[in-house]
Amino acid sequence: MREPSPPLASRAHRAPKRYLYAWGDGHADGDGSMRDLLGGKGAGLAEMTKAGLCVPPGFTITTEACNDYFANGERLPVGLLDDVTAAIGALERKSDKRFGSPENPLLVSVRSGAKLSMPGMMDTVLNLGLNDATLQGLVALTNDERFGWDAYRRFIQMFGRIVLGVPGERFDEALEAAKHRAGARQDVELDAAALRSLVADYRAIVRAETGREFPSDPVVQLELAIVAVFKSWFGQRACDYRKFHKIPDDLGTAVNVVAMVFGNRGDDSGTGVAFTRCPNTGGNALYGEYLTNAQGEDVVAGIRTAPKIAELESAMPEVYAELVRIAGRLERHYRDVQDIEFTIERGRLYMLQTRAAKRTAAAAVRIAVDLANEGIITREEAVQRVTPAQIEQLLRDQFDEKARAAAPRLAKGLNASPGAAVGRAVFTADDAVEWTERGERVVLVRVETSPDDFHGMAVAEAIFTARGGATSHAAVVARQIGKPCVAGCAELVVDASAKRARSIETGLEIGEGDWLSVDGSSGEAFVGEVPTVSARFEDQPALHTLLSWADEMRRLEIWTNADKPEEATQARIYGAQGIGLCRTEHMFREGDRLPIVRRTILAAPLAMRARAARAAGQAPTREESIACWTFNAALAELEKLQQSDFEGLFDAMDGLPVVIRLLDPPLHEFLPNLEEQLTKVVRAEALDEANDADTKLLAAIRSLHEQNPMLGLRGCRLGLMVPDFVKMQTRAVLNAAIAVRRAGGRPIAKIMIPLVGHVNELDRTRALLEAEARDVERRAGMSVEYSFGTMIEVPRGALTADEIARSADFFSFGTNDLTQMTFGYCRDAAERGFLLKYVEEKVLPANPFQTLDDAVVDLMRVAVSKGRATKPSLQLGICGEHGGDPESIGKCEQLGLDYVSCSPFRVPVARLAAAQAALANRAGAPPTRLLRSLRIIRAAAQRSP
Ligand code: ADP
Ligand code: MG
Ligand code: MG
Q1: What is the pTM of this model?
Q2: Distance 50 CA to ligand 1 centre (A)
Q3: How many Å apart are CA 900 and CA 578, to the nearest integer?
């Protein structure tokens, strides 16, 4: 049992506020939860002390003191130094040494420490309190003259550089000269006499550089060091870092004053840094470096090449064993892998810092799984510790680390879509297509991309743009199609017409065909071919375990959007539980089918006239009869192709539901562009070379032309006006299902009617198609499992979901269209025109095409409750791109949908996100990550002995 410390507020202090929190002898005023006030380092030292670990005593001056220092016009708060004096007094008692005493001197380190670890803050000063007199005490006490002088020269060097601002090279030069004089290769080879004369050199340097003597009074040294830490909060480097990472300026830094322990007292001493597990792989073994007879940051500074921590095992087996024991204790205490710093003084191990270890995505997964298996955290916590972005990263290729480090970096931009890819530079989308058709791999380099570039993006290995942020077209599309992307690379000057790009930072340049390696995870692009290592899902056992746990926790099923059997198979490997959207029109565009589709479309008007004539009891004209024949023949050809498409999907998804959406886009999308065709015909006419086919095609394009095609003849409207396509598709679906069943498979067909806004549209379409389906079954003499449903993607459809549900077996929210129509945006125009600016300038909180907007969610909620009121068994899912977005998945969980459907490569991400959403929902209000980690730390603090 530990004695309770006196209540915090009642500690005596002279300053108007309580600025100091001390620790030592197993007690601490603060604890691990007080990072705001004590900084990460101070909170960690207090917490470790409370946990009973061996930590040298010390005290923290709070971040509040730092803020008050600046509020006071850079003056220390009144009374602060008195409180420091009192705290030093307490430290003297705990350490049984005296600050400034020539007989038994107390030395301290002065260490900065903000709430978040942050480069640019002041470096640590060690051995503070040394002067000519206290040095004698240190030497007498340790009976080690060399050690004393070594500590002294280190102090003058550090204090001179860090506090007094003397250029570090001055000291380095003097050290090199001393080594040269002594014929020494390493610092440790310098003897007491050499170090003593080095001290004299250092002091001369300080005198020359500052015009003053090195301060010898320990109290003055301490005051100067404290002020220097505060000042470093607004140093250039710290300010730049905060600005870049959007860290507020008013957090302030704390100052930690810690009694020194010495790693440089001979071969039974040393200093080291370690991770309690490997931060790269997550492997459960101490990972780090260690130096014998060394102090402070010698290890990280690379003064000597530090051996692996494992060597400590042979050098000092007991100490190593203790370190392993402590690592385990810290992990159990903090319930996470730690990054620790320690010093060994004459065989005794002291802990000097601990913090949660930064780790790679692979390590994050392995560690979460291992900690749960070891009983340190629960499986639920393990699932919550890994972010969806980390899962995504694990499924992307990566560059070989060594090769990457050696590669010449062309430029750095925004890491817009993760993964690594290599290809040859091309500068237009058309070139991208042309090069890939020749069998080349390409990287598309653009100033920025627009929807016109999509065909190039789709074939490129990666996308690299000079402009645009994280929600730019390039970034959004790249993430959707799973390609690495570096966007917004301001240093890149792209000259698309000259097909060259150059970095104004590095001066490097690339031209068309040059090899380029793009790392979308780091935002870098390299010149040349950097080898990649692929991350196969099948080869990641820890990831499988974690996701299988996630599967047990989630309520939402994860389906996939897949148009081809290969995609479906991949999605199934990733864990998909069905197909939520098969876009049949994608099949229409495949390979050599487009000409057949065009033939049907061109023949359609006359064929329809023929049909009307026959219905009216008249004979169609010869031309109409021919058109009719062409139309039917082409449609029959399409039907055969579609049936084999569907058979492939049913096979790949055997036993799982497959939602097939009937033809959705307006027909003109399958014809050439109006302007292009017009130019072609006009030009041909001018040369008197006009041909009939082109003129007819132009006429057809014109007749199908609409001002707002997305709001025109498409979806179920087209199906009602020209039923032949959807009837054909229904027959193909049923015949495919029958064929697969005959072959012993278990197809589950779900036919989805798009764009329904009024229940009558659905009723009539369904009646039409059901008749067709029954007809197929009757002919085959066999029945199969199929149902009819609709997409909810028109606001009127959502608002009248109670009526629509009467005729639908399932709803699938088409949130791309629903978002367009709720906002009244055309997505392409919006993303090209203003959406990026809107998000940047916070007109909108996020891109609504990426993350479900709350108003869209409201419409969905109406549809869910009205739909279920009519038909409790109604199956509800989402098939818009939002189905793969973790935040949107959270909203779908709250809406109580049955499944989300996303692109195959997002399925694993969605499995995790759905579990996290279910856990957050179970816990009541969804806690933010920050609150959650605070809660964990607090819980750990309460559990600690
Ligand atoms: P950083 O924030 O850069 O990690 P630290 O304040 O942790 O800086 O100090 C760096 C190193 O200095 C520590 O890892 C430790 O080796 C050494 N150090 C700091 N304080 C002491 C001390 N009181 N006794 C011995 N070594 C210390
Ligand atoms: Mg440092
Ligand atoms: Mg440190």
Answers
A1: 0.83
A2: 19
A3: 10
Amino acid at 127: N
Which residue's alpha carbon is nearest to atom 8 within ligand 1? 124
Identify the CA nearest to 464 among candidates 906, 456, 436: 456
By the 8 A CB rule, do 110 and 124 touch?
Answer: yes
Reduced to 3 states (helix: H, G, I; strand: E, B; else coil), residue 944 is coil
Rounded to 5 degrees, what are φ and ψ at 153?
-65, -35
300 Cα–ligand 3 center, Å: 10
DSSP notation for 766-795: HHHHHHHHHHHHHHHT---EEEEEEEE-SH
Protein residue with its CA nearest to atom 17 in ligand 1: 296
Pocket test for ligand 1, best of 41, 91, 94, 111 (most atoms within 8 A of CB): 111
- What is the C-alpha to C-alpha distance for residues 834 and 826, in angstroms, rounded to an integer? 11
Report residues of the chain scoring pLDDT below 70: 1-11, 297-305, 470-471, 476, 480, 924-945
Q: Are 470 and 385 in contact (CB under 8 A)?
A: no
Catalytic: 485? no
Q: Spell out which residues line ligand 1, taking CB within 6 angstroms.
A: 56, 109, 111, 124, 126, 258-261, 271, 296-297, 341, 343, 352-353
Kindly report each contact of residues 687-692 with a partner whose C-beta sits within 8 Å and lies 24 or more positions away, as own/partner: none
Contact 702, 695 (CB under 8 A): no
For 471-503, the pLDDT digits (tens) are 677 886 787 677 899 998 989 999 999 999 999
Are the C-beta atoms of 112 and 124 separated by less than 8 Å? Answer: yes
Other Cβ atoms less than 10 A from the Cβ of 537: the count is 18
Q: Of ligand 1's atoms, which has the minimum distance to the CA of residue 117?
A: 2
Lateral strand order in the sheet of 420-426:
409-412, 524-527, 515-519, 420-426, 442-446, 462-465, 485-487, 414-417
Cα 864 to Cα 870: distance, rounded to the nearest angstrom: 10
Measure the CA angle with vertex 509, ends 506 and 514; round to 5°: 135
Helix and strand totals (H; E) in the chain: 38, 33
β-strand 557-561 against 579-583: which pairing, if any?
parallel
Summarised one tens digit per residue, pLDDT across range 847-878 is 899 999 999 999 999 999 999 999 999 999 99
Q: Residue 60 in contact with residue 39, Cβ under 8 Å? A: yes
Distance 353 CA to ligand 3 centre (A): 6
Residue 111 C-alpha to ligand 3 middle, in angstroms?
A: 9
User: Measured between alpha carbons, how far is 943 from 945 in angstroms, rounded to an integer?
Assistant: 6
* 473 assigned to active site: yes
Q: What are phi and psi of 787, to 5 degrees?
A: -145, 165
Q: Is the dihedral of CA 16, 18, 19, 24 positive or negative?
A: positive
- Residue 603, token pair as written in the block: 């023949």
Q: At what angle do helices 854-870 and 886-895 cross, to 10 degrees?
A: 30
The minimum-distance atom of ligand 1 relative to the CA of 353 is 7
b/e code 914-940 from CB counts within 10 Å (16+ = b): bbbbbbbeeeeebeeeeebeeebbeeb
Task: Read off the amino acid at residue 121.
Answer: M
Q: Which residue in 411, 299, 142, 334 sits closest to 939, CA to CA?
A: 334
**Sign of the dihedral through C-alpha 173, 175, 179, 184:** negative
Round to whole Å and give the CA distance between 192 and 148.
8
